[in-house]
Specification:
296 residues, mainly alpha
Length: 296
């Protein structure tokens, strides 16, 4: 019937499938054709593929089904958020196919909300859409949310594809791109992050330094040493933190003896992140330091 030449027959078939999709979603999803030559029918099948996973996730929860239907009747970011807040991790996994399709919504708020809740549960099939959103979406907040989802998902091979985001005209996007690369921990990111250490925006510089520390590639150390020698006070702490994470206890010990209290504080924080171990005694020695921030 979906291929019938009469529009009314095709529409009736789609309407029946939509109704059955709410009651027997697995069966209807399995029956939908993968390819359809008629663009209008193909669009409506796409809409069914959006609706049915939402029905699947809410099939035994009347309150959630009501919230899902409210979103389908009026697809706004607020309605989608209301529905998704009523779901747990397992239900969101079921909804993943729908959330993936919502990344193509014409409403930036809906795209952002879909990315927010998809996050680390995004299927591998969603990677291309998320990367495209991070690189190309006209809305800054959507680009940011896409980068957060990419970082949380830790999908292999994603890092090189988001390097262009480090040159985004919006500094907040560059900052989140650096954070995402730190989450992905791909050593191929090190040269690009080292360039961002000299970004005009302090928040981007600090995000890049933090990412380098988390990636843990010692190849970054010589460049960081150069940057440390010419850094201002604010940037110096971020460089010190990265070097502490990269070089470990010996370097932390040296910074624990620095005359600048903020550097000692940074070294203590780095020691806590790495695990105190052999650094327990030199860190405890800081309890007698003259500066309150160090003792605290």
């Amino acid at each position: 019937a979906l291929a019938h030449p009469e529009v009314q027959i095709r529409d009736e078939a789609l309407a029946r499938l939509a109704a059955w999709g709410a009651e027997d979603p697995d069966r209807v999803l399995a029956a939908l054709p993968a390819v359809c030559e008629d663009p209008e029918v193909a669009q409506k099948i796409g809409e069914l593929r959006l609706r049915i996973p939402l029905y699947q996730a809410s099939i035994d929860d009347p309150e959630l089904r009501k919230a899902v239907q409210a979103f389908l009747d009026e697809p706004t970011s607020k309605a989608l958020g209301n529905a998704l807040r009523k779901t747990g991790r397992q239900r969101r996994r079921i909804m993943a196919g729908s959330l993936e399709r919502l990344m193509e919504s014409g409403d930036a708020g809906v795209r952002k909300t879909a990315l927010l809740y998809l996050g680390p549960q995004a299927p591998a099939s969603a990677a291309d859409r998320m990367i495209r959103a991070a690189l190309e979406d006209p809305d800054r907040e959507v680009r940011i949310e896409a980068l957060r989802a990419i970082g949380a998902g830790k999908q292999a091979g994603a890092a090189p594809r988001i390097f262009p985001c480090l040159t985004d005209p919006e500094w907040s996007v560059r900052q989140i791109a650096a954070q995402a690369l730190g989450d992905l921990k791909d050593r191929a990111s090190v040269p690009d992050l080292l360039r961002q250490v000299q970004d005009m925006e302090p928040n981007v510089r600090q995000a890049a330094l933090s990412a380098l520390g988390r990636i843990g590639d010692p190849a970054a150390c010589p460049k960081l040493e150069e940057i440390l020698a010419v850094s201002d006070a604010k940037n110096r702490s971020a460089v010190v933190y990265a070097l502490c994470l990269l070089e470990g206890p010996a370097r932390i010990r040296r910074f624990l003896e620095d005359p600048e209290p903020s550097i000692r504080v940074t070294a203590i924080r780095a020691a806590a992140v790495r695990g105190l171990g052999e650094l327990a005694d030199p860190v405890c020695d800081q309890l007698t330091h003259a500066h309150v921030s160090v003792r605290r």
